[in-house]
Design brief:
Elements (H helix, E strand, L loop, with lengths): L6 E5 H4 L4 E5 L10 H14 L17 E10 L9 E7 L1 H17 L4 H4 L6 E3 L3 H12 L9 H16 L5 H14 E7 L6 H9 L7 H11 L4 H15 L11 H8 L10 H17 L2 H6 L8 H8 L8 H11 L13 H5 L10 H18 L2 E2 L8 E2 L1 E8 L2 E8 L6 H16 L8 H13 L10 H20 L22 H16 L9 H4 L1 H4 L8 E4 L21 E4 L1 H7 L4 H10 L6 H6 L9 H18 L5
Parallel strand pairs: 2-4, 2-5, 3-6
Antiparallel strand pairs: 1-6, 3-4, 7-8, 9-10, 11-12
Length: about 650
């Protein structure tokens, strides 16, 4: 192979050339992408293609090319099909596999002619993993037989189908536009490692490679270049860096002595301005610069907690958003700035004007950034990586002082005597988050931060009345639901199916809103058809919001008995939201078989599903149909926030 061919940009159409094969070696992990990664990929391509999919977005400019990343491969020298070029994939298999599944979906929509797809094929196979190879081949050729192999691959197809439907991308015109752009304008960089490369050494280099300079680091440099002196720049950098680590409470990004100076003894006081922080920061620096080595040693305070213990506490939490996206949320919340898109690909464009100046002053912005990060830390949920049962945390950082030593701990954000309120807030925030798994366009987060900003009392350390917060979040849920339903009748009728009787086209938010309302009312002792939290048992006790992104037809779309399809199988009463892998595995099971599976595994994936499983009969005729209609009527009343 010539040196020129070692690095080559390929369109997606060129990537899937029939004369090229890509093999995933045995040492690579299984396909593992879920809804957050898959939906993000489709959203990025949609944005680049000029397709509008988000509420409030009115302008989307088509990009000439969209760079998708790199595919690192090693050319194999021997293979049974000598006419084809064969590559072993080293890095990029998750993206390549997802593109293969996406291509299969688009092929079956038949928006392009045979000539447009000529020469294309799924050219990805797996060493010693024939099930994965067969699964890709099956979905590309439209085969389906019994229980699907490799549920994650079939689940990805379900995620793609639902995303196109719920985002309004599944019209013939939009799919054609998306497909043409994907094949011709989306580019992936194929990097072929040279022959005789030591692959073990190459993997070691890849796993320890440095990260590229990110856009938010470029933005930081542009802000700092506008500041007048080193004192301002040093203070700005300290605040920015503390805020940039989204998995650590912001106060912990400040050195311990400065932390107390800036945020008070309990670390809960919000400083009044950037200038106040700068004065404390400069004073600390001057004091340190003036100290002798002996004074530094003498002033070093012993701590009961080691660095490892503090680090372990910090590493407990994940985040619902990354820093680049958070910067856009803060900018959008500033009243003087208009038309901010929550798309991190446009981060620099959002902050920098056409004359290359900044749209907001550096000290003003970084102070707002600090304020919103502290609000975010205390009043927005975090994934709790130390508590699998609860999944989500809503806690505030607390300083514990004992003698001369201060350590950190976490308390419920609304106090020990407000556990019920804290739990309701934790649940409704999780409901919003899991309804929008991708990192971008988190409209709910922007609205929640706006609620917090309007209702916090700065003189008491940015505290908020929890009941007010919950009321506003529930109103937000009502508003989102009204936007989806558009004031339409929710019941199924002969003239109109209604917005909630669309099978896989029903949005995740609708199901998650229903589960939140069910959880809240069951918690308050209400029952549904005689079933309360006691009767639901562990299904209620263990319920947590998670990324369930696949709509299950409880009575299946294909009748397992061989009878004709249920006439209104897509009606809301027959639907619930479950994980894609479960749906791929159980999609054609009868209601009784599904019930047996979940009972044996001692779980239900949603509260609506748990209530559905409480019925003995479920089906298209007789008592089974009456139960579907009865359940549906009760659920629609809950969704509409009507007391039964």
């Amino acid at each position: 192979m010539s040196q020129d061919n070692l690095v080559k940009p390929l369109s997606v159409k060129e990537l899937f050339d029939k004369k090229t094969e890509y093999i995933i070696p045995i040492y690579q992990r299984n396909y593992a992408w879920g809804a957050p990664e898959i939906e993000q990929l489709i959203q990025d391509i949609s944005d680049a293609a000029g397709l509008i999919t988000q509420p409030g977005e009115t302008v989307s400019v088509k990009q000439v090319k969209y760079y998708l990343g790199s595919l690192v491969v090693y050319q194999r020298t021997t293979h049974s099909q000598q006419s084809n070029t064969v590559y072993e994939t080293i890095d990029g298999q998750q993206r390549h596999t997802t593109l293969s599944i996406l291509l299969a979906y688009l092929k079956h929509r038949k928006v392009l002619g045979e000539s447009d797809l000529a020469g294309l094929d799924i050219n990805l196979t797996f060493d010693s993993r024939p099930k994965s190879s067969r699964a890709l081949d099956d979905i590309y050729k439209g085969k389906s037989s019994g229980e699907p192999e490799e549920p994650n691959i079939h689940a990805a197809l379900n995620i793609i189908q639902r995303y196109f439907k719920t985002k309004g991308l599944d019209t013939e015109a939009k799919i054609k536009q998306f497909c043409e752009y994907l094949l011709e304008n989306v580019t992936i960089l194929r990097v072929v490692v040279p022959p005789q490369t030591d692959l073990n050494h190459y993997f070691e280099i890849m796993n320890n490679r440095g990260e590229q300079l990110e856009k938010h680091e470029v933005l930081k440099a542009k802000f700092m270049a506008t500041l007048s002196n080193d004192e301002e720049r040093n203070c700005f950098s300290t605040i920015w860096d503390a805020c940039s680590n989204m998995t650590r409470y912001t106060q912990m990004g400040f050195q311990s002595d400065l932390r107390k100076e800036v945020f008070g003894d309990n670390w809960q006081t919000m400083p009044k301005s950037f200038d106040v922080i700068q004065a404390k920061h400069t004073s600390k620096q001057q004091k340190q610069d003036a100290m002798t080595l002996r004074e530094i040693i003498d002033n070093k305070t012993p701590s009961e907690n080691t660095d490892d213990e503090e680090r372990e506490k910090e590493e407990r939490f994940g985040t619902v958003i990354d820093f680049s996206n958070f910067l856009l949320h803060v900018l959008k919340l500033m009243p003087e700035i208009k038309g901010v898109s929550l798309d991190d690909k446009k981060l620099l464009d959002a902050f920098i004007s056409k004359d290359n100046g900044l749209k907001v002053e550096a000290k003003t912005f970084v102070y707002e950034l600090l304020k919103y990060r502290i609000l975010f830390d205390s009043y927005i949920i975090k994934p709790d990586q130390h508590n699998e049962k609860r999944k989500w945390s809503l806690q505030t950082l607390i300083a514990n002082t004992s003698g001369t030593s201060t350590s950190s701990s976490y308390n419920n954000s609304f106090g020990k005597d407000q556990d019920t309120l804290n739990e309701k807030l934790r649940m409704i925030l999780a409901m919003f988050h899991v309804s929008n798994p991708a990192l971008v366009y988190k409209r709910w987060l922007n609205d929640a931060l706006s609620i917090l900003n309007r209702n916090t009392k700065e003189d008491t350390g940015l505290s908020i009345d929890g009941e007010v917060y919950l009321t506003e979040l529930e109103r937000l849920s009502d508003r989102y639901f009204e936007e989806i339903t558009g004031g339409q009748c929710l019941e199924l009728n002969e003239e109109s199916l209604g917005v909630l009787h669309q099978g896989t086209g029903v949005q995740n938010f609708v199901f998650n809103r229903l589960d939140y309302l069910l959880w809240k009312r069951l918690s308050d002792g209400e029952t549904f058809d005689g079933k309360g939290k006691k009767e639901l048992g562990k299904h209620f006790d263990d319920f947590q919001f998670s990324f369930r992104t696949s709509v299950e037809h409880y009575f299946p779309q294909t009748d397992p008995s061989g009878a004709s399809k249920m006439e209104d199988v897509d009606r809301f009463g027959n639907l619930c939201l479950i994980s894609p892998s479960s749906n791929s595995r159980l999609s054609n099971y009868s209601p009784q078989d599904k019930k047996s599976f979940y009972r044996e595994n001692n779980r239900a994936e949603s509260l609506k599903q748990a209530i559905m499983m409480s019925y003995d009969d479920w089906g298209p005729v007789g008592l089974g149909r009456k139960n579907i209609e009865k359940h549906e009527s009760a659920m629609l009343k809950v969704l509409s926030a009507i007391k039964i």
